[in-house]
């Protein structure tokens, strides 16, 4: 059986703090909520700055994005902050959107844990990996040489055979937006899938913007939430 947490950690980068610290980060993120304009709601507003840097961009997502994403900081939170930062970003963006829309109680602390089951019963971390790979391929510019370099990196990452097969399959096959969207078991998971995808692309590129719009539609994200998630991603990465 795939060690989903290990795969996500390897994918995001060896310097990530890990999903086991997500609960504490969520509590810190909750302390900075409530700005309707997004000011002060970036990752560093309530989460230690170390989660954005000082970790070395050694993750597989960094290889996917390398040389392709020109916007300042795009992908940085993925390679430096790990699953904890990703979950905390999604939590706060969702919470801010709820406040703007005057919708219900804040999400539970465990709503964005990658160990939680996805709609298919497998760990949600696997769905996040597939979503990020799909988004990184959205511009269609991963050529055969780049794909081989990624395959070689995966071979050296210490993953088990099942984990390697999952990554190779996601890289080799055409992206299935319907399958990515169907993996969301809850509205919170849908939001995090969108955020992970947004962090793995450059939204200024038309093809990638179209990909995000199509994903938001398939995820059935309510009005205003994609914009809130994108704003949080931009504040965290500077791009």
From TrEMBL:
InterPro entries: TerB-like, YebE
A Pfam cross-reference name: DUF533
Protein's name according to its UniProt entry: Tellurite resistance TerB family protein
Source species of the chain: Pseudoroseomonas ludipueritiae
């Amino acid at each position: 059986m795939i060690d989903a947490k290990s795969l996500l950690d390897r994918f995001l980068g060896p310097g990530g703090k890990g999903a086991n610290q997500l609960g504490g980060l969520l509590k810190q993120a909750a302390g900075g909520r409530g700005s309707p304009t997004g000011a002060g709601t970036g990752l560093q507003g309530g989460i230690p700055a170390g989660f954005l840097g000082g970790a070395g961009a050694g993750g597989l997502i960094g290889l996917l994005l390398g040389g392709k994403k020109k916007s300042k900081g795009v992908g940085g939170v993925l390679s430096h902050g790990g699953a904890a930062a990703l979950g905390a970003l999604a939590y706060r963006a969702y919470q801010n959107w709820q406040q703007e829309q005057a919708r219900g109680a804040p999400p539970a602390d465990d709503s964005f844990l990658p160990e939680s089951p996805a709609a298919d019963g497998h760990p949600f971390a696997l769905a996040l990996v597939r979503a990020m790979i799909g988004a990184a391929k959205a511009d269609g510019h991963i050529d055969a040489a780049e794909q081989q370099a990624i395959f070689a990196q995966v071979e050296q990452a210490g993953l088990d055979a099942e984990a390697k097969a999952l990554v190779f399959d996601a890289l080799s096959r055409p992206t299935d937006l319907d399958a990515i969207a169907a993996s969301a078991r809850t509205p919170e998971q849908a939001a995090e899938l969108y955020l992970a995808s947004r962090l793995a692309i450059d939204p200024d590129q038309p093809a990638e913007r179209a990909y995000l719009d199509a994903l938001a539609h398939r995820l059935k994200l309510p009005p205003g939430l994609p914009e809130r998630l994108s704003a949080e991603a931009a504040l965290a990465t500077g791009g």
